[in-house]
Amino acid sequence: MSESSEPGDTRGTHGTHGTSGTGEAGGTGGIDPSVVAELTRLRESIDNIDAAVVHMLAERFKCTQQVGVLKAEHELPPADPAREARQIARLRELAGNAKLDPAFAEKLLNFIIAEVIRHHETIADGAR
Fold first, then answer.
1. DSSP state string for 13-50
2. Which pTM does this prediction carry?
3. Residue 23 banded pLDDT, cuts 50, 70, 90
């Protein structure tokens, strides 16, 4: 989840700190040092947010693993389309309120849900 896709940015997903990641050949070139400092500050914030997102997803998957075990123990289906629809509607509303594209939020949640269902299927297969 790096923001390295800025136009002219050749950093890839590494080198987000310091002044060498401006996309300029040989480093900062003639860029104003205050701009480089602000870019570095913003990229460090992005890096911190990315780390928080990863940790939050890990916590979410710990919970969904427990749901998968419970479903397997009680022979419930791995997917719950009604719950998924409610979650998508809820997330789209939250996204809109947060000024985030609801379609993007839905795509992200659909990706996560697909992974959760895959985990639940694996757990159910192991319980048989």
1. TS--SSSTTSSSTTSSTT--HHHHHHHHHHHHHHHHHH
2. 0.71
3. low
